[in-house]
Design a protein that fits this description.
Shape: globular
Order of helices and strands: HHHHHHHHHHH
Number of strands: 0
Strand content: under 5%
Structural class: mainly alpha
Length: 260
């Protein structure tokens, strides 16, 4: 109990500091005041959400029983709806982490049914963007935003399944879900123009299927088929080949042991 209270104090101080520097600027804060760079209703909304989280950290014992009164389906539906609305409302206005501006210009020059020809490491993603762009009333920016938002919802859905699989109770499931959805790459789901958004739900799915395969709850062929799909999402996923081989090896050993 003492460790939990200590963790709550650390969380509270961390969150309160970020909220405080929305209004107070004693000097160069090197990132801790990043919320202050939002304007108007945006930082007001962030402040309100942050305040709810801040209070929630101290009243976990009172809040979780209320949440538990809703069925898992209702909780998941409300969370997905809330997150989807957040993706759209807080869509990023600039694309500075990669080649976003370049991608938008290239896609915008494609004529009807023209193939986007360029060296790429994400064949599936490029095909999806082209398909969206060639749809009626879809601009190059909107094509990327739809791809980004959809990838975020997929990630949330897989994260819900993953946290349900790992967590032993509602507290652990909620904590794991918060961790999975507070990582830096989440910005990719807020309408950001880049090719990586689909990579993150794909990696989490790979981990989940790997665990299920080791527990004999997923057939090795399903895991293998998904691994094959994983590679053209982004070629960096070839780094998962050793992990796949280990799961395959352990699965074969288990299968042989059952025959004996």
């Amino acid at each position: 109990q003492a460790e939990i209270k200590k963790a709550k104090w650390i969380l509270g101080i961390f969150l309160f500091t970020h909220l405080m520097f929305i209004f107070w600027h004693p000097g160069y804060m090197w990132g801790i005041d990043f919320l202050s760079y939002y304007s108007g209703w945006e930082w007001i909304g962030i402040f309100m959400i942050g305040s709810v989280l801040f209070l929630g950290a101290y009243y976990t014992e009172q809040i979780l029983p209320i949440i538990a009164t809703f069925t898992a389906g209702i909780r998941a539906t409300l969370l997905i709806l809330f997150v989807f609305i957040s993706f759209i409302v807080f869509t990023v206005p600039t694309h500075l982490l990669g080649d976003g501006a370049l991608f938008l210009r290239e896609v915008a020059t494609l004529s009807d049914n023209q193939e986007w020809v360029r060296p790429n490491r994400s064949p599936i993603v490029y095909a999806l963007i082209q398909t969206l762009y060639h749809s009626p009333y879809i601009s190059s920016l909107l094509a990327y935003q739809i791809y980004s938002w959809t990838s975020g919802i997929l990630y949330l859905g897989i994260a819900l399944l993953f946290s349900r699989k790992i967590g032993r109770n509602l507290t652990e499931k909620s904590l794991l879900l918060c961790i999975l959805f507070s990582l830096g790459f989440v910005v990719q789901f807020f309408g950001y123009v880049e090719n990586y958004a689909l990579l993150f739900p794909a990696i989490l799915t790979f981990l989940l299927l790997g665990l299920l395969t080791l527990e004999d709850k997923c057939h090795i062929f399903v895991f293998s088929a998904f691994t094959g799909v994983l590679f053209p999402i982004h070629f960096v996923t070839f780094a998962f080949i050793p992990s796949y081989c280990i799961v395959l090896y352990l699965s074969i050993i288990k299968s042989d042991a059952k025959k004996i």
